[in-house]
Amino acid sequence: MLRTPGRRLLLPAVLCALPLGAEPRAQPTPKAPAAPVPAPLVGVPVARVAIVAGNVEQSATGRDWQPAQDGHRLKTGDRLRTGPDAVARIEFPWTAVSVGPGSTIQIPGGVVLSTVLEAGRVEVHSGAGEIIKVRTADVQVRGRGHVVVRRSARVTLVSVLDGGFRVEAQGRATSVNGGQGARVETGSAVSVSALAPPPDRLVPGADPAYVLRDTPVTLSWNAPGETFHLQVLALDSDNVLLERDVTGLSDHVSIPWLGTFRWRVARRDDRGMEGVLSPAGYVCVVDK
Questions:
Q1: Is the alpha carbon torsion for 238, 239, 244, 249 positive or negative?
Q2: Residue 256 in 3-state DSSP?
Q3: Which pTM does this prediction carry?
Q4: Which residues contact 170 (CB under 8 A, 6 or more apart)?
Q5: Cross-strand partners of 166
Q6: Are residues 236 and 220 part of one domain?
Q7: Neighbours of 240 (CB within 10 A)
Q8: pLDDT of 245-276, one tens digit each?
Q9: CATH assignment of the domain containing 50
Q10: What is the pLDDT of residues 102-129, one digit of tens each?
Q11: Which residues on adjacent β-strands are paired with residue 281?
Q12: What is the CB neighbour count within 10 angstroms for residue 9?
């Protein structure tokens, strides 16, 4: 076999470069540069604030709380809080988040947009092709449909009224479907159970009651239990206009707008979880 001049010269050159008895070492493979970590996207307008009722405040990227203005833009890094009788709506391009009384939310900067509920209650509807993502200190809720998320102290309650969601806590995701609720306490796994059935015998019901504007109307229902969540909504949309937690089987509500409105109620069980919504009752508010 013929030997090439290159092979005869290469071997002695390598051996002379090594100490006596040393083995040739493989050269380390150069490491690829680490992928850059995306910077937080703070100060980017992503939604609008619709003030429905009561006192609503906004904190822009860590600043002091200021009265929120109806229609004002909400940016990543901003926080929003509602007074004890207030209702606000955060209108994203793809969906809207109803913020109940006594609640605080944040829109964090990040690659994936989400709503963080620090305390209180939010309610979200999502149609086909829309994805909801709500977070608390311990839980991430993601899916499609109609969901209520409550946060109090160290407990998160998730009521799935329609559709399907994945509730993630402690690094594990659990499927929760319509008619089910999930309870998560800080440091614990997700606990899933059936929601309480809807109240019935609403008065006024399918036949609307006619009342004068700013005149209280009595709303009543039938169900076991003591604590309920009551809402007044627009007639032709899911926009919540008034809402509150109530004790007992009736409440007096003053509606300050003219027109016809829906109302509904859900029972809260002994854990505080909201149950299935009642059928709608109707109230027609007229001027003097």
A1: negative
A2: coil
A3: 0.84
A4: 187, 188, 189
A5: 142, 175
A6: yes
A7: 21
A8: 999 999 999 999 999 999 999 999 999 999 99
A9: 2.60.120.1440
A10: 999 999 887 567 899 999 999 998 876 6
A11: 263
A12: 9
Say how far apart CA 176 and CA 209 lie, in whole Å.
Answer: 37
Residues present in the chain in total: 288
Distance from CA of residue 273 to its chain's centroid? 16
Residue 81 sits in which domain range? 45-194
Instruction: Look up tokens 């969540």; give the residue.
Output: 229
Asked if 107 and 122 count as a contact pair (C-beta separation under 8 A), the reply is no
CA atoms of 162 and 180, how far apart (whole Å): 9
The whole-angstrom separation of Cα 230 and Cα 244 is 5
140 and 78 belong to one structural domain: yes
In three-state secondary structure terms, 13 is helix
Please report the DSSP string for 205-221 in residue order: -SSPEEEETT--EEEEE
Quote the CA–CA distance of 79 and 75 in Å, as a whole number. 9
Residue partners of 61: CB distance under 8 A and separation at least 6: 42, 43, 75, 77, 78
> Which alpha helices (H) appear in 221-260, and where do they start and end?
none
Sign, CA torsion 227/194/183/150:
negative
Q: Are 241 and 87 in contact (CB under 8 A)?
A: yes
